Amino acid sequence: MSHRHGCVRAILLSLLALSCSAAPTGAAIAAPARRLSADALRFVGDWDGALPVGGARVQIIFRIIHGELGGLVGTIDIPEQHASGIGMDSLLISRGAIRVALGRIGASYHGVMAENGGIIRGTWTQGGYSMPLDLGRGAAPEPRRSQDPVPPYPYAVEDVSIENRAAGVRLAGTITRPRGAGPFPAVLMITGSGPQNRDDEMLGHRPFLVIADRLTRAGLEVLRCDDRGTGKSTGAYATSTTADFASDARAELEFLRSRPEVARARVGLLGHSEGGVIAPLLASQDRSIAFLVLLSAPGVPGDSLLLLQNEALERASGRRDDMSEWNRALQRRLFAAVRAARDTNGLDASLHRVVRRAIGSLSAAQRGRIPPGFEERQVASVSSPWLRWFLAHDPRPALRRITCPVLALAGARDLQVTPKENLSAIAGALRAGGDRDARTIELPGLDHLLQTSATGLPSEYGSIEETIAPVALDTITNWIRAHVAPAR
Predict the structure, then answer these.
(1) CATH number for the 38-137 domain, one of 1.25.40, 2.40.128, 1.10.3470, 1.10.10?
(2) Contact assessment for residue 269 and residue 253, using Cβ atoms and an 8 Å cutoff
(3) How confident is the model at residue 298 (pLDDT cuts 50, 70, 90)?
(4) What mean pLDDT is predicted for residues 431-439?
(5) Residue 365 — very low, low, confident or very high, per pLDDT cuts 50/70/90?
(6) In 206-362, which ranges are continuous DSSP H helix?
(7) Which of 278, 323, 345, 427 is the most buried (most CB within 10 A)?
């Protein structure tokens, strides 16, 4: 999962695996109100560049606009990390130079504009490292996504609204259904972590739109929904946990079953990443669910999953150094403190003590590499309701209670939900529970999003034209059709 995508929270530009991912923020701090100089006005607009990180390039977009107070305000977007509108804590422009402070991610930028005004040559500093970052005028063009379906569609498309009365949430979604009267087998799609819309959209990719199109053409009715508090759905996303999202999925499932054209006994679930945690939770409580498709799904406890993810990302990106083991030890201590807490009273204080002790164990030179605000960000990142629930959750008990057919797919280059450990755990739990129709498949060359990938690093997600590999689409579609043959 991405910062909160794909079930895991990737660390934003974690050059040392020290900085926590930053959530999008509101407006930046405005420069003092005054008449803007011609020099300052040259910086207004969108600026695009790329940081060299771990053998890949991470796109950074600066947006500088006129503020309401008469000065300039700025934000940055980091598309690869699904982060946008990160406010600049300070924005200073003088004599053709720009200085930006980004306290929320412990970063800063200093650049000088070329005489022609078309490029800013500068340096990005974060986590004790400095890297060149040159910015060109204008944001990068939208990437090509050739698998997106193009209307007119050979099926019906209907926007729907679903009430989760128990939670007081209204969920907005889209149903795609084959032409004809039915009854049709059906599938509910469940997104990965992060505030996802019904297409599970990020970096210009819309994988749930692509999968829904393929399954509907194959004769299935498909429902996909915006997460609560996202898109057109109501509710509070930030304070919700996976259990809350499971409650939403249960309401969506009942809505889908209630449709007159749907074959109620042939309705299954397809979940990606965190959605692959939610689907087994529902199926372990509801024996009438016809099938499960788990894509890049966790099979090990949440704390183990995140430690495996951090190590895999670090190894693949070449970030290992003398701080690597220290960082992993800190994460283990923080996770243990969260799991040991009976309630939230005193949790933050306990987490602060863990971080301070860890920093105190470093040499003076190593402490100098800790970015500003590190302690606060570490505590905030592990004390959220979502992460507290996720760290404590073990998917295996729910998997052991499942009796319906299950297909679990993973990419061999998945660095966020590592396939070796997680597919093995899923297979073992299903086998222990006596499920006689369960299949786990590791697809060579595919990443966490089931794209064909050279490295599996999240920095590749946006640059790959393919949204989902044809072999994954074929495997999903053929397996479902074999288990729930559409009526003809």
Answers:
(1) 2.40.128
(2) yes
(3) very high
(4) 97
(5) confident
(6) 207-217, 242-258, 275-283, 302-317, 324-340, 347-360
(7) 278
